[in-house]
Amino acid sequence: MAAPSLLRGGWSRLVSGFLGLGGGWARPPARALRQVVEVTEGSTTVIEGKIIEDVKTPTPPNPSGQCPICRWNLKHKYNYEDVLLLSQFIRSDGGMLPRRITGLCLEEHKKVAVCVQMAHRAGLLPNHRPLLPEGHVSKKPKLNRYLTRWSVKSVKPIWKRGPKWCRVPFRVGHPLLMDNINYGQKPVYLNH
Amino acid sequence: PRFRFLPPGVGTGSGSEAAPPARRQSAMASYTKAAQQWATFARAWYLIDGKLQPPGKLAAMSVIRLQGKHKPMYHALSDCGDHVVIINTRHIAFSGNKWEQKVYSSHSGYPGGLKQVTATQLHLKDPTAVVKLAIYRMLPKNLHRRTMMQRLHLFPEDVIPEDIRNNLVEELAQPRRIPKRLDEYTQEEIDAFPMLWTPPKNYRKM
Q: Mean pLDDT of residues grouped by 10 in chain A (192 residues)?
C-alpha cells in the first residue's frame, strides 16, 4: 500500500510544476486539505482524497481578533508585494473570495482587494490568470509596472499637466494603504 | 582656535621639542603620487541595470555620476564627470499608471507641428528614449549637458559592445528592491507561511 501523501490543494500547481498551461485544464480544488489514501483490494485500487477534519494550523498571536488579519497582527503591515498573504484570499483565476467566506472585516477586505489588483498588474501572480481559449495571444504591449492604482485599459493620457503651481499629479499606490507602517524616513508619496 | 587641517605638530608644538617630531604615517602612504593622481582624475565607467527599475530613480543616480558630484574634488568647470552605461532599458518599470498617463510632447515650430506621444508609444518606438529624456531633463541646463549626454550609454537589452564592457569599473546597486513573484518562492517558504483562515468544508468555488 502506498504511503498516504498530504496534498495541499492550493500548492499542487507549484509542486507539479505547471508552467505553460494557463487555462483549459481542470484545476484541482484549491485550499481544501485532503489526505490521499490508496487502498488495493485484489484487482481494484481505490484512491480516495479524505478531507482532514482537524487542520493543524498554528495558533494566531491574537485569537480574540475579528478577522484573520487582526488575529495575526498584520493590520497595517502588508502591501502589494506580500504575495504569500494575498494568495490566500484569491481564487485560482485571480478573483477575490467573498468576505462571508474568508471572514475579513470590510476595510481589510477592501485593502486586500486593492493589493491583489496591484499585484496582478505588477505581474506577481502569474499562475492566477483567468481562463482563456488555447493559443490566445494578447495584443497589449507587455510593460513592467508596479503600484498601479487604476486598470490599464481605463486610464486616459494627461495631455495637459498644467503649470507647476497647479500641476495634475500622477497617482501612485492607493489611499487605503496610507496608514501602513513605514520603517524608512521618507513618507509614502501617492502623488508623483 | 587652530586651523583644523594643519598637522598637530605645527604652531604651538614647534617650540616645545628639541628634536623635530617623527613623520606621521598617512593613509595614502602606500600609493605613489602618480597613482593617486591617476585615481583622482581618471574618468570611470559605471554600469546600472535598469530591469524592473523606475526610470526617474535611474536618472537621479546617473545624473550624480555624470556631473561628477560623487567625487570630493568636484568643481563645475573641472570636467570631472564619469561615464554611465545603463542596460535593459527596455525592461524599465513605471510606478502608477504613468505608462498610459505620461505624455511626451514636442513641437517642430511650424503651425500644427505639436506631436504628443504617450510613454507607451514612445517606448515601443524607441526603448531607450524614456531613460534618455529623463536624464536629459535632470541634468543642469547648461552647455555641459550635451557633453554629459555623450558620456551616457544606453542599451535596450544586456548586449553591450566589447570595448565598453572592458571599460566598466563598477556595477551600481539597483535603486528599487524587486519583489518576488509567487512562483519564485521556494516550497519551504510557502510552507513556512501559516494559513490565516480555514475554509468551510462545503465551499468548492476556489
A: 44 42 39 72 86 76 92 95 95 94 95 97 94 82 95 96 97 96 94 96
* ipTM over the 0.85 cut-off: no
Chain A: residue whose CA lies nearest to B184: A124
Residue A178 amino acid letter: M
First to last CA, chain A: 63
Within an 8 Å CB–CB cutoff, is residue A7 touching chain B?
Answer: no
Are B95 and A145 a contacting pair at CB < 8 A? Answer: yes
Q: Which residues of B touch A174 (CB under 8 A)?
A: none
Note whether A158 contacts B: Cβ–Cβ < 8 A.
yes
Cα-based torsion angle of the residue sequence A75, A80, A81, A82 in order, rounded to the nearest 10 degrees = 40
Q: What angle do CA B195, B200, B206 make, to 5 degrees?
A: 75
**Which string of DSSP letters, residue by residue, matches A6-41?**
EEEGGGHHHHHT--S--SSS-PPPPS-EEEEEEEEE
pLDDT tens per residue, range B80-137: 999 999 999 999 999 999 999 999 999 999 999 999 999 999 999 999 999 999 999 9
What does the pLDDT look like over B149-194, one tens digit per residue? 999 999 999 999 999 999 999 999 999 999 999 999 999 999 999 9
Lowest average pLDDT, out of B13-22, B63-72, B105-114, goes to B13-22
**Under an 8 A CB cutoff, do B97 and A170 touch?**
yes
Distances (CA, A) of B200 to A98, A108, B88: 12, 20, 47
DSSP-based three-state secondary structure for B92: coil
Q: How far apart are CA A122 and CA A144, in angstroms?
A: 7
What are the Cα distances from residue B13, in Å, to A1, B7, B21?
92, 10, 9
